[in-house]
Amino acid sequence: MHPHPPGAPVISAQRLSKHYGDFRAVDGISFDVPAGEAFGLLGPNGAGKSTTMRMIGGVSQRTSGQLTIMGLDPEEHGPEVRAHLGVVPQQDNLDEELRVRDNLIVYGRYFGLPMSYLGPKADELLEFAQLTDKASAKVDALSGGMKRRLTIARSLINEPRILLLDEPTTGLDPQARHILWDRLFRLKEAGVTLILTTHYMDEAEQLCDRLVVVDKGQIMAEGSPAQLIRDHSTREVLELRFGSERNTTVAAELQGIGERLEPLPDRVLIYARDGEAALEEVSARGLKPLTSLVRRSSLEDVFLRLTGRSLVD
């Protein structure tokens, strides 16, 4: 493998594009990811996140632009690049016929790794994934969270420097998600570079040092979660509910309060530096909401502002 210069980005994309006929799934995006960073791709369905991940993983060829992984083009040096990648797909694709530990061993054999390495490594990864007591269980006997942890453990069998995670916690209950977050934090602390896509804003805030918001194949914004909130929202948000029939009509009477107003079918959002002061102004105007809530601005506010609130199939 060619030496990768210290300090150089482990992933570099310049004007990266992927077209399917006239459809531009990825449309000229550029980003660099330094070693050890947790980098997120955030966007609605069809935004181009998974397509970008497949190009990074070397399983989908780009239409145009440049892409390097540790200084190598994944299309020209696929096996070398994949030897240093761990991949966690959207859907668990574990071998249901094999027992839990054997899933790790057999997968490791695909990399040509010797049994003298794989035995101890499998035991180490089962402990990491909190699955030691399930080592001899059948895969189909595992819960959803356990299967997800096993899929992540399997992706680590070759000690990858970069881990690609495509919506790692979709479908998991809150407890299982938090256990998974803890495992990913530990990997990051060990120096593994994490690249993840997610639909969950709290997950992006928890896990990502930096992220890009992608929509229609293009990057809409880039930065740390805190920076994106500062740049695209206010410090606080006041949520008011006047009843579904009145929210839109009352919105006209709320004009001028806060920095920005957004009427929704079920509530009215007022973006303000000081949510309590905004609520006092609402009361001073003689308006009486059924419920009111002052909260800090979140990544979800940024996401919805940048990509819109209409549903994407």
TrEMBL record:
GO terms under cellular component: plasma membrane
Localization in the cell: Cell membrane
Membrane association type: Peripheral membrane protein
SMART domains, sorted: AAA
Pfam families: ABC_tran (PF00005)
InterPro entries linked: AAA+_ATPase, ABC_transporter-like_ATP-bd, ABC_transporter-like_CS, ABC_transporter_ATP-binding, P-loop_NTPase
Entry keywords, A to Z: Antibiotic resistance, ATP-binding, Cell membrane, Membrane, Nucleotide-binding, Translocase, Transport
Gene Ontology biological-process annotations: response to antibiotic
GO MF term (any one): ATP binding
Major subcellular location class: membrane
Ranges for domain ABC transporter: 11-241
Family as reported in the entry's similarity comment: Belongs to the ABC transporter superfamily.
PANTHER family in the record: ABC TRANSPORTER ATP-BINDING PROTEIN, ABC TRANSPORTER ATP-BINDING PROTEIN NATA
Protein name, UniProt field: ABC transporter ATP-binding protein
Species, as recorded: Arthrobacter echini
